[in-house]
Amino acid sequence: MLGQPIDLLKLVMPDEHTLRGSMRRDEAGLTTDPKKRTVTRVPYDLPPQYQMRLAVKRNDSTTAMSVAVPIGDHQGLIVLDSGYGKKSGLVWIDEKNEPNNTTYFRRGVLTTGEPSELLVSVYRNRIHVACDGKT
């Protein structure tokens, strides 16, 4: 763990922080409409090095999940189960987009209808992503 944990979920107000699509807060946490691409900004400035733990559940097997993460002065994008659950990884690495960069995992990582834990560790010179303990 890199520092004290902060519950970022509590900071998100769906009506205020959803930039595109729709999101609502319910007993499960934050839920999006699987038929619409949803973009939500978490109102928190992350330090240069951090860990982010997300509890996620995909309810529709045809949708991908993406998480944008600040990496220094840049923005990274983690994609889980794009192409109908056939690939996951980081987008635009070494000037190569998926599926042509070395981070791409050529099969899905989420099980539809089951919860998963995503752990993202961002360091000054690297990023590590694990889903349910698998890198």
Q: Can you give a write-up of this model?
A:
The two termini are 17 Å apart. The protein has 135 residues and is mainly β. The radius of gyration is 15 Å and the shape is globular. It has two helices and ten strands.
List key phrases describing it:
single chain, 2 helices, 40% strand, mainly beta, three-stranded antiparallel beta sheet
Strand content: 35-45%
Query: What's the alpha carbon Rg, rounded to whole Å?
Result: 15 Å
The number of E-state strands comes to 10
State the separation between the terminal residues, measured CA to CA.
Answer: 17 Å
Structural class: mainly beta
Average predicted local confidence, pLDDT = 86
Largest beta sheet, briefly?
A: 3 strands, antiparallel
Number of helical segments? 2
Secondary structure: helix percent: under 10%
Q: pLDDT below 50 for ≥5 consecutive residues: which ranges? A: none
Label the overall shape. globular
Q: Order of strands across the widest beta sheet?
A: 5-9-10
- Helix-strand pattern: HEEEEEEEHEEE
Please provide a brief summary of the model:
The chain is mainly beta.
List the helices and strands and how they pair.
Blueprint: H1 14-17, E1 18-20, E2 23-26, E3 29-32, E4 39-40, E5 50-57, E6 65-71, E7 74-81, H2 82-85, E8 87-91, E9 115-122, E10 127-131
Antiparallel strand pairs: 1-4, 2-3, 5-9, 6-7, 7-8, 9-10
